[in-house]
Every structure is written in C-alpha cells, then in structure tokens.
Amino acid sequence: MKTPKNSIRHFDRLQRRTIQFVRWNLPVLVLTSLSLFFLKCEGTSPDAKTLLVPLLVSADSTTSTAFGGNQGGQTGNGTPIAVDDTPQTFAPTLNDITYITNDANPADDPYSTKGLLQFQKTSVSFKKPVPSNTTITLYFGKKNMELQPDGTVTNALVTLNRTAATFSGYTYLTEADKKVKVYVVAKNEFGISTKQLTIGHPRICADAPKLPATIGDCNDHCIEATKTGSIVELNAKYKLPIQGTSLNLDIVGVSPKSLPEYIAPSQNLVIPVPNAGIHTIKTSFNIYDTEFLCTKVTSFLTISNPMKFTIANGYLSIPND
C-alpha cells in the first residue's frame, strides 16, 4: 500500500510528464484540433480522403518537421539534378551546338592543308535534364549525308556514339577550306532531338570577304559578286575610256586548292571593235553544288588599243544558305 507521501510524488511526476508532453506536441495538437473543428463545421466526416492527421513525434533538439510536398525542387543540402540523375523523364531537346576550329598539328599536317573541328564537353547540352543513358551520336559527312525521320543517318563518313553521361567532347580532323556536314542526334525511349551544322576550318579562305563584295576598281577593271537565293553571280566589268580594238574579257571561279576545280564556269567576252563605255561578262554557281568555304575568282582583260593587260582576282566566301 502506497503511503500518502509516495502518492504525492507519483502525482507530481505524472503532472510534469503531462505538461512536458503537451509543450512538445502543442503545435501538432493545435493543428489537429483545428482540422477536426473545420471538418465538423463543414459537415464532413473525417475519413481517409479528407483528413490528414499529423504524426505525434517525440521532441528532440536534432529533429525537424517539414509540412507540404517538395515537387520538383531541392531543400537543404540536397544534391542538384544532374544529367545522369534525374527523378523525371524527358524526351531530349538539344540546345544549339557549339564548336571551335584550329589548324591541325604540324605532325599530322606537314603541308598545312588540314584543320580541326573541336567539340568540347559543353558543346552538347539539353534544355532539360535527361536520363544518363540518353544516346548522343555525332555524324560527319559530305553534302550527300542525309538524316532520316527515325534519327538514323545515311552516307556518314565518321560516326561517334556516346551517352549523356559519357560524352566528353570530340575532335574531328578534316581538310581545310571545305565544308563538313554534321548531324547531332540525341535519342532515348521518350523521343529524339537533332541538330544540323555545316562547318569547316578556313585557312586560305580565312580572310575571304562575305557577299556582296567587289574585287578591284570598277572605274577601271573589277569583279562584282552578288547572291540571289542560292545563286551567286560573278560579274566582270571593264570601263573603256575610248573606242578600241580587240577587247578580250573573261571571268571564272575555282576552288582554293593547289589543283583547282571549277566552281563557276569560265565565260569569255570578245569584241573586235569595242565602243567606249562599260563592258561586262558574267558567270554564276549554286552554293549547294560546292563543298568549299570560298572560291577564287579571276578576270583577265586584254585590249590592243589602247593597249592594256590587267588581272582582277581574289577569294570570296561561299555562304551555307
């Protein structure tokens, strides 16, 4: 049988524990009471679909409680979503592809005729995170390389296969002053994204002016270059100050190679007795018919009277579109 003194002590301990329990769990008790009150006022039964009862937890100085969801975000010191660690599933959407070009290493290019197309690790990126097994394929080829609707590519000269987790860049050795067609294809189970580039490394073509352009002095002998749609027109002009004899004026466009290929066919104007004024001869080419970054255009002029012989020549950049 407990003595009155022991009963008082027992009552004191019980009272302290009750006060401590209420103090630790007061926010939760208040929230639960309010939830029940509002449900009662609305006439709604507290079933599993309409009532969320917070869990009463033991208070501890190292314990924290968070309320609400964390949809698609980070709290505290959580690890950011990376390419190879994404909680959501996205079809790939490629950003614009970046690259740099450089001269080839002399050990690989003793005649200075090659260039490097360099894709860095950051050259290929996505608008949203993608699964780490998303494939990234780079295709290199000429103008006859074609992309099919299913993401496959035909007539590629070189193919590089990587994934979003393993792509670390790539360097492609190519002939300088020639265009290279590049397809970048990203694919996973949710979709396909593609990008196309037409690029090259200029060496001889590095300083070629863009169209429209003029080579020479049009008050005497010059070449004017213009572009309409995909057609580049080259117009050789000579301004004859007086009536003369035996005028010969031509125009041609060739590749920048040491063994040139025709880009714009040669055209020739011959006038036995030319009148004073401007005399012209034209040639042209389609930009999609050549794989060179520029063309060397040349016009020869000869006339017997007044006696004259001049050459107008230079390089002109060939646009991609």
CATH superfamily of the largest domain, by name, is Immunoglobulins
Helix/strand class? mainly beta
Beta-strand proportion: 35-45%
Poorly predicted runs are 37-82
| Mean of residue pLDDT values | 82
Biggest sheet architecture: 4 strands, antiparallel
Helical residue percent band = 10-25%
Give the second-level CATH assignment, the architecture of the largest domain: Sandwich
| Sequence of secondary-structure elements | HHEEEEEEEEEEEEEEEEE
How is the largest sheet built, in terms of strand order? 6-3-8-9
How far the N terminus sits from the C terminus, by CA atoms, comes to 104 Å
Number of DSSP E strands:
17
- What's the domain count? 3
Summarize the structure.
12% of the residues lie in helices and 39% in strands. By secondary structure, it is mainly beta. Strand 13 and strand 14 (262-271) form a beta hairpin.
Describe this structure in words.
Mean pLDDT is 82; it is low at 37-82. The termini are far apart. It is built from 2 helices and 17 strands. 12% of the residues lie in helices and 39% in strands. Strand 13 (245-254) and strand 14 (262-271) form a beta hairpin. The chain has 321 residues and is mainly beta. It has 3 domains: 1-72, no CATH class; 100-201, Sandwich (Immunoglobulin-like); 205-317, Immunoglobulin-like (Sandwich), CATH 2.60.40.10. Keywords: Membrane, Transmembrane, Transmembrane helix. The chain crosses the membrane at residues 21-39.
